[in-house]
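Researcher: Can you fold this with 6-phosphogluconic acid in place?
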Amino acid sequence: MSLSIVVHKNKKELAFAVANTFLQKAIDAANDQRNFYVALSGGSTPKALFKQLADAQVANAIPWANVHFFWGDERCVPPDHPESNFGMTQTELLNFIDMPAENIHRIRGEAPPAFEARRYAAHLRRILPVNVHRKPVFDWLFLGMGNDGHTASLFPGTDFWRLRNKICAVAEHPLSGQKRISLTLPVINAARSVTFLVTGTAKAQILADIINKTGHYRKYPAAKVQPLSGNITWQIDAAAAQLSGK
Ligand code: 6PG
């Protein structure tokens, strides 16, 4: 597994570069007459990317009819709640692009968590190709990383790694107790391509530990993301990279 690490001067340059890669991959998929199945991450980091993708010059060049959006995790709140990952994506991106409604596969945060975890898992199995382990395969899966090394809603100190046979799981934020629906690690690692978007000084030490396999890196869920495809890229800004020696 060769980690590809791309360091950008700042968040805006990172977003511009990733948006252009997204544009190219979406066009390639449309030219091959195949859908482009993308799992988006939540939190605040993706906002800069969504802003770039919503920019008319880029948005008008992307064949949205071939692009399908899913989410790597969702807070168990209604879609119009300020903490909804879908709600943030709608505000920052979906309201500005011409994507068919049927291409938007949101996790229903307002539904009973255990029921929704089962529903979303069945939905993913219905829409996406599956690998030899019967796990749905995304073309591109975005992830963020929390200041504690969590990713999606897989938190350190929980037994997330035991969920080998599940596609989606109900998780709980360790501090707020907020329920979440999250893809499991086997689904994340089934993706054809995984990209972490990590910015800011607050994540620099954990990122350095993960990249350099130092400190307590083994306890961080983000360190467990090792896609079977071997295709993983860390898109980071200089602030997050400052302790990594990259
Ligand atoms: C979520 C996430 C989570 C997020 C990280 C980073 O629902 O919160 O998907 O894994 O990506 O916590 O969040 P920030 O981008 O806000 O730092």
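Model: Folded with 6-phosphogluconic acid in place. The chain is about 30% helix and 15% strand.
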